[in-house]
Task: structure prediction
Amino acid sequence: MAMEIPRPFPLTEQVLSLFVAWLFSKGLVAGTVKNYLAAVRHAQISQGLGDPRMGSMPQLEYVLKGLKRKSEAQARTRRLPWRYCRD
Result:
């Protein structure tokens, strides 16, 4: 039996949330992830499947908000390297 690969379109909230989490795991920041989401939304609309209305997906909003908060916290804890000797 061959395993059927699910089609990515039409988009579901669960698929988008997993996609966003995967993008953050690759080190992308919130602004870049939102650009990726805009591109995915455009792809769905251009295929004639309608607007996925990402603003009405509460789980996706929670994932974006939480990962944005996490990336902001990591950015605050970064420090510039200390230089021990100057010439």
